[in-house]
Amino acid sequence: MTIFFFAIKRALRDKFTLAILTLFPILLLLAPPFWGEETTMGFSMFGMVIMFVAFILVRTIMTDRVSGTVTRIFAAPVSTLKYLSQNLLAYLVIIMAQILLVLTIGSQIYGWGLELYLMLVVCYTVFAGASIGFSLAWNSVFKSKELSDAIFSIVISLMGILGGVFVPLELLPDLIRKMGMIFPIYWFSNAISIITYHGDFRSFWLSIGIMLMFIIAFLLYGSKRRIE
């Protein structure tokens, strides 16, 4: 598990990553209008934070690729599967720690019950996996970090609009909703909406299942691309 522990230390050494992991979501928690009974904005915005964190963490794999570090790593008896699995597991552990920290503090501030807390943990954890898988697939497409970063900022904003982060899904036109369904963030927003408004829990688990399928598809695509 050498790569796993190194990936965690490497991520936590970066001050910008630490700020997004801790400072941003805590500042978001301290904005009560986002967490009222009539809105899911705070929960959805935290999902966007998770997507940014996943992208920044997974970007280190691209950094290794473009800097030639990964070539030196593979000179040792390290397989691609071992390199990717330990890095991705480390990123998931870091994001899960962030999720538990935010939900625990949020529960103390806004009085969320145990059932809501546990369902949010499930929803955010699966979405974190989808975000990591998406970031891996995304970075595997580009050879330039600068180009990848620039386009990702635009794409994630578009995904947020189509996925119901900024406007509740039920207020979006049908065409926009159908377009949003091709992104995991739509199903994340749908699950969050069901949790907070006590909707049909079969739809909640359907959204979770679809996000799991996104994880498999993204990981298969991202890991099959050459990273040397």
UniProtKB/TrEMBL annotation:
Residues 41-220 form the ABC-2 type transporter transmembrane domain. It is found in: Membrane. Its main location: membrane. It is a multi-pass membrane protein. InterPro entries: ABC2_TM, Nod_factor_ABC_transporter. One of its GO terms (cellular component) is membrane. The chain crosses the membrane at residues 16-35, 41-62, 88-110, 116-138, 150-169, 204-222. This is ABC transporter permease. It comes from Alkalicella caledoniensis.
